[in-house]
Specification:
Radius of gyration: 26 Å
Largest sheet: 5 strands, mixed
Number of helices: 27
Distance between the termini: 42 Å
Shape: globular
Helix content: 40-55%
Number of strands: 10
Strand order of the largest sheet: 4-5-6-10-7
């Protein structure tokens, strides 16, 4: 939620480099991987750090003194709420001067620092009692935030400040004040008593409905084994419980087409209760928008974004769909021919929905001629972290330094703490890296702002703290963690978010780093993906975990050649998802059921047919989390593509361009209008046609089909 003061839930190992030498065992270890000397940073991520004598003063989670035990969350909650009451009293007693904006931000910071940390712990901590205590803290602070969002005195004093012409505010101060005021109004504070009561009831209902929908989207499907004539083969791919198979994905990497179809149909079979929950979610959101005088929820959600209106979004998506038609048809012909050859069936006319994942993967392998195990050997996690460190040194003069944590600071022994240090400016912030899979952990790779940067009352700067969650394989007995290239891409993506958090230097934490509109927040992270797919970058750091041999240039070229292979079909699918999201959150009543709308839009804008008897929208979790904003992925990719090709493609290590990017785009967070930031970087105002052309240019880059 984005409300007035919402918490946006959006150790160093040894400093000595270990020398792994062929056939020389290290004491205390069973079998050893061998490689040349790793850097201290790589060592920290390649090997689980041993327990050591610690000389730092013991502390709590993230260095918060109260959080040395489960009961500390209650202490943190009470302290935060008490400080919040004190700041609110100060605001209400203050005259409407620009100092008010700093007080509002101080209040927001006080609440967010506790709530964001608690929400992160709720999603990642391995101890269920700690997670429960964190959830209680998160809920209590969120409840107080909702109370503040409906406090007329706060709204009125801010309104007086903005309505006065006598106060000169800088651009960021005025923007933050306007954002706070807008957040108030999105909470219905300006409504009469009856409408406000109805608004609050709808919001409370939406929290429950949204949670129910999200839980069901990720729930596996339990299907009797008797449903499958090839039960033994099914059990090879999915877990079996008694006489049932547990299916958690509609797409199967099997050469058995009948089995692929059965799995797809079983996983996406319409569930009446889930579809009813989706209808309730969409109806309640439409009612919320109408209460606050918006024609649709999409109009409500897109206020302040780069796209601005649903009409602009649909224009972008429609132009993209039209542009993609020809390329997608060519890719479909290639896959259809592959299916004919593979099945030796000349009557095959097209690819079915359950075929796409299998045959596109097969075609990539045949083209690139590299399997995951071949490439993963060159991407030990430590080498990848070295690669990021080298890249950030080149672009920004920044180094990543593994730091020994204090006792009690981490929530899992394999978490690493990084210092982000500039060569002349010094320490910029901290990143906690929770990279390995474990039970009871958030399954999605994610970035979290634990504490935002801001100017403090004494003029010093509150250093940002971020956390990155990934689900990489743990180190093996005889190898460090080895990443697939897709995992490398995810790592670069999340570090793009983290660098946005580290490099933003805003006056107010309300707009720092990734605390900006969704269709801009993804630009820095998507831009980092381009670096992960550039052979010049890969050749700087990728090396075999045993021999230390660099990734062969031929491997790098072939690997990167596959980035946009079948990209038109994938992009067409993203357009479909975004269109459905817009239509569902558009004007109501809808023109038919959500399944009817899906089938129609898919037939109009994609070359992959809809499978009757399926309803994939019931498993599309982003309908809840990104309601009316799913287009942001494509929009951000279009902007990032333009920035990459115009600014970085010629030299991905350019310090001049890196500094310009830092000071023109990243430094402002959400403190400046995002379209202006992009325009300043590109020295051009992007039109919808420019964005669509950027997507096409991206498809053509390194694609063997063009």
């Amino acid at each position: 939620m984005r409300t007035l003061l919402s918490a946006r839930f959006t150790s160093q190992s040894r400093h000595l480099a270990l020398q792994w030498r062929r056939n020389i065992p290290i004491p205390g270890r069973q079998a050893k991987f061998t490689v040349t000397t790793w850097t201290p940073l790589a060592t920290a991520f390649n090997s689980p750090h041993p327990k050591q004598d610690r000389y730092l003063e013991p502390t709590g989670l993230f260095g918060v003194e109260e959080l040395t035990s489960t009961s500390g969350f209650s202490v943190l909650k009470n302290r935060t709420l008490s400080e919040g009451v004190t700041i609110v009293d100060e605001i209400l007693q203050s005259s409407p001067t620009p100092r008010l904006v700093a007080l509002f931000d101080k209040l927001s910071n006080t609440l967010c620092v506790a709530a964001d940390l608690a929400e992160f712990v709720r999603l990642t901590h391995p101890d269920h009692q700690v997670r429960g205590a964190a959830e209680d803290t998160s809920r209590a602070i969120s409840g107080y935030v909702e109370e503040l969002n409906t406090t007329p005195g706060l709204y009125n004093v801010l309104g007086k400040l903005l309505s006065s012409d006598k106060h000169q505010m800088n651009e960021e101060t005025r923007r933050v004040a306007e954002l706070f005021l807008f957040d108030f109004e999105k909470s219905g504070i300006h409504l009469d008593a009856e409408k406000r009561r109805h608004f609050v009831e709808l919001q409370e209902a939406l929290l429950v409905i949204g949670t129910q929908f999200s839980q069901m989207t990720s729930s596996p499907v339990c299907v009797p084994l008797s449903h499958f004539p090839m039960a033994d083969e099914v059990a090879h791919f999915y877990p079996v419980s008694g006489d049932h198979v547990i299916i958690d994905s509609a797409f199967l990497d099997s050469n058995n087409e009948e089995l692929r179809k059965l799995i797809y149909m079983a996983c996406l079979k319409p569930e009446k209760s889930q579809l009813q929950i989706l209808d309730l979610l969409l109806t309640a959101r439409h009612q919320v928008a109408q209460v606050v005088n918006f024609p649709s929820y999409s109009h409500h959600a897109l206020m302040g974004t780069m796209a601005k209106t649903p009409e602009n979004v649909m224009d972008f998506l429609t132009q993209a769909a039209n542009m993609l038609r020809g390329p997608a048809e060519r890719e479909m012909q290639i896959l259809t021919s592959l299916k004919k050859d593979t099945t030796q069936n000349p009557t095959v006319k097209y690819i079915e929905p359950w075929d796409l994942h299998y045959y596109s993967g097969l075609a990539r392998y045949q083209s690139v001629k590299m399997n995951r195990s071949t490439t993963s050997a060159y991407f030990p996690l430590g080498a990848c972290m070295d690669g990021l460190d080298m890249l950030f040194k080149d672009l920004f003069g920044i180094s990543l330094q593994a730091q020994e944590p204090a006792e009690g600071e981490l929530w899992s022994s394999d978490v690493q703490k990084l210092r982000v240090v500039h060569e002349t400016e010094g320490l910029l912030g901290y990143i906690y890296c929770d990279f390995f899979s474990r039970e009871e952990k958030l399954p999605q790779d994610s970035h979290f702002t634990i504490r935002g940067g801001r100017v403090l009352d004494d003029g010093s700067y509150q250093l940002p703290v971020a956390a990155i969650v990934c689900n990489f394989p743990s180190p093996g007995v005889s190898s460090p963690p080895l990443l697939t290239h897709n995992m490398v891409e995810n790592l670069f993506h999340e570090m793009g978010h983290a660098m946005h958090s580290m490099l933003a230097r805003t006056q107010y934490q309300h707009v720092t780093g990734t605390r900006c509109v969704t269709d801009f927040a993804e630009v820095p992270s998507v831009l980092m993906e381009y670096f992960a797919w550039d052979p010049r970058v890969l050749l700087r750091f990728a090396r075999h975990y045993k021999t230390g041999q660099s990734l062969p240039e031929e491997f790098a070229q072939r690997l990167c050649q596959g980035r946009t292979m079948f990209g038109a079909l994938e992009m067409q699918r993203q357009v479909l998802y975004a269109m459905i999201d817009q239509i569902y959150h558009g004007r109501h009543p809808l023109d038919g059921s959500t399944t009817d709308i899906l089938a129609y839009v898919q037939s109009q804008h994609t070359v992959i047919p809809h499978a009757p008897g399926t309803a994939w929208q019931q498993r599309f979790s982003h309908l809840n989390g990104y309601g009316a904003k799913y287009y942001s992925y494509l929009w951000s990719r279009a902007v990032a593509s333009r920035v990459w090709h115009q600014c970085f493609a010629k030299d991905p290590f350019s310090r001049e361009i890196g500094e310009r990017y830092r000071h023109t785009m990243l430094a402002y967070g959400g403190g400046r209008e995002p379209n202006r930031l992009v325009e300043d970087m590109l020295e051009k105002k992007l039109t919808t046609s420019d964005l669509v052309q950027s997507l096409l240019d991206d498809l053509k880059a390194s694609n063997p089909f063009y």
